[in-house]
């Protein structure tokens, strides 16, 4: 066994420098195996979710309640955070405040180094992925071992997560077996010889690999699904039991929590414990729910630290419309229903938050300076399916439009005094002029109908279009214009009925 660290790929900091979504999406579309994996996984998850949600007669009321609670939190966030800090401190925990990723990483590294440990075990945490904590720990000589099965697969594969809930959704079980056989022995207990791709055997191999890490670890790092202000309690929900091991065995527990995760009272948790499992894993309740409230003598970690991070959240909070994205409870329902995500996967989004929620959340907390963040609000068909399934009623489709306008405004501000020609405004003006008079519209319809008949003799679709339409058409099969207008159809099918 070697003791080398696990260096992820791509290197730290590269996410923000990822190519624009259209470029990255085209790259991911070229991976046929990944497309098959995503198609199977997302359809399976969303079908099960629909069944679990269908059992609830009051599902819409629960959604409304969850949205209302999270909105109340955002309106009074400073007060609830102060209450949370006071409650955690009263319970024996130490609270740290971090303005950005660099500050949060420094705090965690200092806390680990104070223990003298050179490794930590980790519960799956989007917040630690967001701030690239694993990479920062590694640079300081500290190994961070992921213990969630999917995260372990991603880490051993020197890969990046591609889904909020199922980080290895882009891998099938044969690929997982190959990763375990090639990498697992380099970082601990190797898999059994002749390991096959049966899910039970893969899970057994992971269990044996992780057990030694659980038993020797002195420090654990976690996130939190919820932080309860009035009781000073943190909540983690998970399905494998690895979280329970991390949260109870080590001497020191460091929890990295986004400031938007706070809930006002313990009673509020009841709503989310019904919304989250059904929306994420399609379960009536999650298998493991761990709740801890500071340190307790003789029971669990004796040194409990909570790092509350901003990292752009207050910037999002300052936008009265955009702040609703901070309601997100990281269920991934919007990813599983999104036709775009199903085709390209999470790596195309250049962030640990992919899919529709990532397309609105990333530009808000990271800004719109990078090419990838400017492109994300346009990574959607605006079909609205994400809005329909969101358990806390985030108007994702509306926010996508809102963020598009902010990107356009930012570009205009940069081009002040420079009047560059742009095809889209000219096309919109031309369309408005045609539609403003029925005679012009009828003439345009006659022209398209005629061109459709002519083209129909040669091909069933137009194919490539000239500039400036080429940018729109280079990823689409442009059909021939219809040979019958709606007016023609109406005269042929409805006019006679109206006369009767």
From TrEMBL:
Transmembrane segments: none
Keyword line: 4Fe-4S, Electron transport, Iron, Iron-sulfur, Metal-binding, Repeat, Transport
Top-rank taxon: Bacteria
Segments forming a coiled coil: none
SUPFAM superfamilies: alpha-helical ferredoxin (SSF46548), NagB/RpiA/CoA transferase-like (SSF100950)
Domain 4Fe-4S ferredoxin-type: 325-393
The keyword Lyase belongs to this UniProt entry's keyword annotation: no
InterPro entries linked to this entry: 4Fe4S_Fe-S-bd (IPR017896), 4Fe4S_Fe_S_CS (IPR017900), FTHF_cligase-like_sf (IPR024185), Helical_ferredxn (IPR009051), LUD_dom (IPR003741), LutB/LldF (IPR004452), NagB/RpiA_transferase-like (IPR037171)
Domain LUD: 81-309
Gene Ontology molecular function, alphabetical: 4 iron, 4 sulfur cluster binding; metal ion binding
GO BP annotation list: lactate metabolic process
Name used for this protein in its record: Lactate utilization protein
